[in-house]
Amino acid sequence: SEVxxxxxxxGDGIGPEVVAEAERVLKRTEEVFGYTFETNHALFGGxxxxxxxxPLPKETLEVCQSADAVLLGAVGGPKWDNNSKELRPETGLxxxxxxxxxxxxxxxxxxxxxxxxxxxxxxxxxxxxDLMVVRELTGGIYFGEKFRREGEHGExxxxxxxxxxxxxxRIVRQAFEIAQKRRKKLASVDKANVLETSRLWREVVNRVxxxxxxxxVEHVLVDxxxxxxLRRPSSFDVIVTENMxxxxxxxxxxxxxxxxxxxxxxxxxxxxxxxxxPVHGSAPDIAGQGLANPIAxxxxxxxxxxxxxxxxxxxxxxxxxxxxxxxxxxxxSDIAVDKSTAISTSEMGDLIVAAI
Amino acid sequence: SEVxxxxxxxGDGIGPEVVAEAERVLKRTEEVFGYTFETNHALFGGxxxxxxxxPLPKETLEVCQSADAVLLGAVGGPKWDNNSKELRPETGLxxxxxxxxxxxxxxxxxxxxxxxxxxxxxxxxxxxxDLMVVRELTGGIYFGEKFRREGEHGExxxxxxxxxxxxxxRIVRQAFEIAQKRRKKLASVDKANVLETSRLWREVVNRVxxxxxxxxVEHVLVDxxxxxxLRRPSSFDVIVTENMxxxxxxxxxxxxxxxxxxxxxxxxxxxxxxxxxPVHGSAPDIAGQGLANPIAxxxxxxxxxxxxxxxxxxxxxxxxxxxxxxxxxxxxSDIAVDKSTAISTSEMGDLIVAAI
Lengths: 356, 356
Ligand SMILES: CC(C)[C@H](C(=O)O)[C@@H](O)C(=O)O
Ligand SMILES: CC(C)[C@H](C(=O)O)[C@@H](O)C(=O)O
Known about the structure:
Chain A is an alpha/beta fold. Chain A has two domains: 1-102 and 269-356, 3-Layer(aba) Sandwich (Isopropylmalate Dehydrogenase), CATH 3.40.718.10; 111-261, Isopropylmalate Dehydrogenase. Helix content of chain A is 41%, strand content 22%. Chains A and B meet through strand 6, strand 7, helix 6, helix 7 and helix 8 of A and strand 6, strand 7, helix 6, helix 7 and helix 8 of B. Strand 7 of chain A pairs antiparallel with strand 7 (154-164) of chain B, so a sheet runs across the interface. One 3-isopropylmalic acid sits between chains B (90, 93-94, 247) and A (193-194, 223).
């Protein structure tokens, strides 16, 4: 089969460790399914700041642009937290999203059986929770003009939130299509009782909704959504929302599953191009000790296979392998009830690779 | 003693019912403690739209402006949801906040013993949760310029988020002072890794923090805060944040206590002037049936006594009376485990009045 090019960005903290295991999974699927991958490694985030003086070097962008998909570990850490804006890992993250046109962030929030008890929510409330947050990723207050100025009452700071119809329509249509393949329920989240961008958002949703008659749509105000996620998480299927609200709600949704350390995410551009990464962060406190859980990154590979390459056989195999290893009781220390029985990052990788 | 003037705004839905019980509590404290209140009723919200054509009539504003404090029931309902912006109850709410200079919204989120089980969080996670969200209420993206325009890519909508140093400093200092009277922990919530207004916010917090050396400050990013509220709610004491983040986080915090139907809130202006209201909404579905729970509104009176009038004896008495009635097992239907034993709005009022 055709060679697929994957840009691999290990990043900071536990990034390199978890990405290493995901790459072994890639190799294994080449053997088992006959796919061929060309991986190209690139520097990004804190390590790129240290080695090249910028969080998003031009070569990294080029490696990504010439790839079919990007696999990202994690970026950031206290070492760079007090840097000036241009020298911060987050600036690289925002830059890569914009440069690669990754307008849509897909954040599935599901409950892993073996982690049900890790949630702070009652099991009966959590039961059946399986939702997907579709977050707009290249617009809104993240990318609008921002500046300081001397105002009537002294120094002031300004952020601008802008959305045009096309930007909203693109993400909303994607969310409808995703809902069509799931339980056919879409919650569009906005603050239309206060914000003009939200009123535009709601107009677009209402205009395109009739083209997806099989999907049931509800408009939910963002403050109410933050509450309903807590009260009735299992009643949500797909949630679509703008960048800032999506940042907050997708983290809330991920946390309430109790499975945040196991969740994968995709940031999609036009066509099938996507950047895949675990939802968890770079966890600098446990970096380099073989303690990290590689499952979220391995599941990010499965998501890549499904969404970018259409390799659902291999995606299924990876997901089944993960389930099988967990069912057999193997745990890294983050999810082990008895820490003394925990296995290392690479042992978990070994087991999953063997199970594929 | 001096006559205190209270503007009473019953509002929509269950507003009139719960406010009626709160007024009986006011009367009772006059008898018991010798205080004297002059109450003036005013139209606001949906009912004001219906009767006067505007959600915030000029006379209502005058009644409020000449009062020492405002007691508000609840506003809004589906009847007015599709009105144009100027004819919506929310527009009245934003208008009254701005006109009265209510820059600070205090939202205590506590767990009522009898409602512990109503939370979707596990009791052991909830244990000891007692936090206060201090939300900036007259700035940020709520009040910045908002408009539509023809952009490069067609129609677009714009919202502007603006904060000046004085606005931030005012609310931040208030939060520090509140923290000093509580457990001396302040979490300042922002999105300083993305927003310029958040960077200004953080600078102000860092500049004034040394003046409150007894208060331990942490900066928490808003997405992380949405998660930590779920993971370790009891570790928060005071949370201070800007308007939009405060809207979302205060609702999340209230909901996780399981006691949202019982929580009071205060919106404070300069000096001791304040508007007091229950956190819950107008619940149009149960309006007029004597089913509403008046406790949150009655506790709003206690908050008014404490924060505006300094009548802590009467505030204590009200809070004790509420606790006593609940301890004796009396419940309105919203909080009754066995609905058949539920008492009515006015029966709950009777019991609390009698217990003062
Ligand atoms: C690091 C930060 C800029 C980023 C965001 O806010 O988008 C992160 O929170 C995320 O959700 O990917
Ligand atoms: C009704 C709405 C405008 C209001 C707000 O967003 O401030 C409400 O949600 C609140 O929190 O008081």
